[in-house]
Structures are given as structure tokens and as C-alpha cells.
């Protein structure tokens, strides 16, 4: 709003005329002197526009600016709170010797899909070369705080079609040491299976993000990859919102509570997913 040549009344200096108006400063000529004032703050306390129409317009401008400043303030406070929570979470992870990516995501082939939801355990596969060839692939990060995410896509589908079929918490006695069969055992109760319709609404790449290539959706090779703790919490949170069966919602909620407790995550402040398909 351009205020040059507008007549004003100042509580102390009396009548004047605005002769300059910069972005945040106005200059007012009075009878014997001129003064600079902060815009629009001066209009809140000391200065009144004599023209009623201009005064009304200015009031609307000031209200809009105050709303924008309030929104910006809230945004900064929210960002600061998120940063504080994240730092607290990292400190807790460090104090409890928890890796920030101690979850695991498996790529299930068709035969594994038939077995995993019956046996509730999944194989890490075998080392393909070197002195350990034929031995189970090690999963050193897995502990009782870990979850196993079960994913799949058809061989003729692009990687963007990978869906989450379910997940389970690792058995509470598991210490990362695999037996000769290379199987990761599940918790006795904390298991979630999705229907085909539910899985269609749970794309893997909505959550998983390659930090070096955030827009890339490429699994490449291997039966599994480690998965971020926060991403897992996001998934379970979304599953709870997706489920309609009360008993399944209860199990998923218990899963999330248990998972967040073991991984030092604030269950009430889980950020939204921001993978390439989010």
C-alpha cells in the first residue's frame, strides 16, 4: 500500500503529511520538521490516517501482515520442536545403543509369500561368493527392537509397484545370531498381515528413501535391506488408519506402542512419510 501524500495525525507531533514510504519506513513532514517511523508498527500506536477509506485499507493490510507473521512464528516453533524431538530421539538411540536403521525390509518371491504368513519367519538368504559362500547372510543390526517388513512385486512390474504385504516384530529373545537355516524368527503376537486390497494402498516407496538419491526407486539386488526406524513407525501408523477390523486395529496399535517404546520414538509425534511416492 503506497501512503505517499496521505495526511496523518500523530499523538504527539500533530498533523503531518507522508512524503516517503519505503518497505518498512515512512517519512512524515510536520510543520517545522520531518520524522521517520517504522511501518506499519507506528500505525498501531501513534499515527492515524485522516482518510477513513485509506485507514480501513491499511488496517486490513496490518491484520494480514500480523496473520502472516503469526503463521511464520508457529512454523518456526514447530520446526524447532521437531528438531528438538529428533535430537532427543538420536540421543536416546545413542544411550541405548540402538541403530537408527535397525529394521529390515525383505523382498519376498512367490514361494516365500506363501510360507511367511504361515511360519512367521523369513530367510536372509545365503552368501553367494567368497569364503562364507553358502552361509546365511548376516543381519548384525537386528535386535528385539527390530521389525521385519515384508514386501513384494510381480516380476513384470516396475519397482514403483512394490507393495508392503505385512510385517512382524523380531522375536524378543533374538540377538542377531542366525541359526544354520538363516531364519529371522517373529514375535509370538506382534504380527500384521495385510489383505490384497490393503497392500495396494501401502506402496513401499512411499516410505523408503535413498538418502543419496531421494527420487530414485531402485532395489537393485539382494533379498533384504536395512530400513529406518521412523519409516517403520510411519508404516504401522498408516496401517492402523487403514484397518477396519477392531481386533486387527488393536494388534496394530499394540505393535506401534511396543515398537516406539523399544526404539525411543515419540508415538504422538511421528512425521508424515516423505519417500519418492509420498
Give an overview of the whole structure.
There is one protein chain. The mean pLDDT is about 90. Helix content is about 35%, strand content about 20%. It has about 280 residues and is α+β, with helices and mostly antiparallel strands. Strands 7-10-9-8-6-11 form a six-stranded mixed β-sheet. Strands 4-3-2-1-5 form a five-stranded antiparallel β-sheet. The protein has helices at about 40-45, 50-95, 110-120, 195-200, 230-240, 245-260, and strands at about 5-10, 15-20, 25-30, 35-40, 45-50, 105, 120-125, 145-150, 165-170, 185-195, 225. The two termini are about 40 Å apart. It has six helices and eleven strands.
Which regions have little confidence, pLDDT < 50, spanning 5+ residues? Answer: none
Binned, the helix content reads 25-40%
Termini separation (Å)?
40 Å
CATH class category of the largest domain: Alpha Beta
Structural class computed from helices and strand pairing: alpha+beta
- Tally of separate domains: 2
